[in-house]
Amino acid sequence: MAHTTIMRWVHEYGPELEKRIRRHLKRTNDLWKVDETYIKVKGKWKYLYRAVDSQGKTIDFLLCARQNRKTAKRFFRKALRSSHTKFPQVISVDKNAAYHPAIRELQKEKKLPSFIDIRRIKYLNNRLEQDHRFIKKLVRPMLGFQSFRTAARTLIGIEAMHMVKKDRLPPLASLSLIKLIS
Length: 182
Description:
CATH topology: Nucleotidyltransferase, domain 5
Distance between the termini: 18 Å
Organism: Shimazuella alba
Keywords: DNA recombination, DNA-binding, Transposition
Strand order of the largest sheet: 3-2-1-4-5
CATH superfamily: Ribonuclease H-like superfamily/Ribonuclease H
CATH class: Alpha Beta
Protein name: IS6 family transposase
Number of domains: 1
Helix content: 40-55%
Number of strands: 5
InterPro entries: DDE_dom, Integrase_cat-core, IS_Transposase, RNaseH-like_sf, RNaseH_sf, Transpos_IS6
GO molecular function, one term: DNA binding
């Protein structure tokens, strides 16, 4: 079987798989670790925002072209809309200047509680930095992506399978996922 066939399957079924498993994900805790990593698309670096809880469970992810306050705010809104997340009590971020204003704006809009502790210490995100390795290990041999759409669809499939691998699904949902795949 050609590798392009497998890639077409990932592009086609990755988003569907992620949509189906998202409703079965186990609840996360209220200690968020947020960071971004870089993915090459058409020879230019794009930003993959990711958030995990203190146990390493993936909260959410978002591929964006820019790294600014507006994008960070969009990522936090997406993460807060997920049905498996709790409102954060503590958010650990790196020194990216976009996070703090985005969180403050969401607090003013009453999307986030005002009592959130924002930690801007570099080494608190080590768990998330280690979690980035999994994605980088799969993306690096691809030598980047040729379009933003294929990058987004591929990363959705990779993240979905990573959630399954991290045992984020209850046992019955895992069985229905196996039936879906076979």
